[in-house]
# Entry
Amino acid sequence: MITSHHNPLLKDIRRLHRRRDGGRFVAEGEDLVAAADAAGWQPVVRLRAGVDVEESVLAKVSSLGSGTRELAVYEERWAQPAGPVCVALWGVKDPGNVGTVLRAARAFGAACVAIGPNTADPFGTKAVRASMGAIFEVPLARVDDVASLPGPRVALVARAGEPMTGPATGTLVVGAEREGLPDDVVAACDEVRHIAIESESLNAAMAATVALYEWNRVRA
Amino acid sequence: MITSHHNPLLKDIRRLHRRRDGGRFVAEGEDLVAAADAAGWQPVVRLRAGVDVEESVLAKVSSLGSGTRELAVYEERWAQPAGPVCVALWGVKDPGNVGTVLRAARAFGAACVAIGPNTADPFGTKAVRASMGAIFEVPLARVDDVASLPGPRVALVARAGEPMTGPATGTLVVGAEREGLPDDVVAACDEVRHIAIESESLNAAMAATVALYEWNRVRA
# Structure
């Protein structure tokens, strides 16, 4: 059982919280580790309070104010973009929003979340936590080109195009909170849609959640 | 122009960030203050960097890591629960979720957000920020009884009842992330609905957003 804060493994985990390297990431909390187990992910390292490491020592490597009973390190996985339903994020910089989109993708049956340029790391600590385990269930792809996404590609924008409804398959391309999608990305898409709202905007996670819900509803 | 960190007004604002009192709250950032102006809210105090207060001094009372150009203090406002569409939160403890529900209520035309027991303070700093200005546009009510909400009252739960669709007016009652709605609250509602999902759950903000979208869609 690890009893020292100076243990190299713990130093490694503290560093991973700040800046990931070596393609590994940390999942913290019994629920997340259970989600990884259920999805068949083998941890590189697994630390349980009172079993593998002293509780107070584990608390010090926790990114949560409340400490944690368990954490584990995994190797990140990347897949190719895939349909029938994919969500692509372009410039979504808030890791909480990226994690929430993963959760929505899981809830509404998307096959893939594609991470485009200038988007928060989906394997970062905050995104993993916000995903509530969906990080282990929804395949992730890295993309830098709309053409690599399953078609039709639907640009989700604040006000242009038709209201959101079908085609209900293809890729939903979601942009940043303020700037929206770059013009060249919109131009490279096959369709432009918006969610009918009475205010200025929704955040990227809310917009993606509603759009995924709508496609799921239309398919069902 | 205020130049001292020890100015009593600034101390007051720092305290309001931590623990609100006197029915006042802080809105931070030019966008939020502009939203308040547009909605006709008069600030009790308004501080602009370089005009009313030195920039570096204002930065020290900011709750944002990046500092702020402007902040203002307002008196909170409470209304009675009102329809045709109301959202009631019961045990939603995360202030970011409360603010996001306000934003969704604004986007999808709800007349009121009702704050039930054990729910985060909607006028707290984090909730105000997450609302993106909707705090100034959507009337808030305090409730401790389902019977005081506009009917029909629809309990939004994880899996029971019919899938979410009409009546499209009345009150959507949304519970906590994990525990959901207490049994007595569900029993006091007129209908029980769920959002059809393929995973365990959505968070309260996502569920409320989708439900409000759905009601708005059905009405349109």
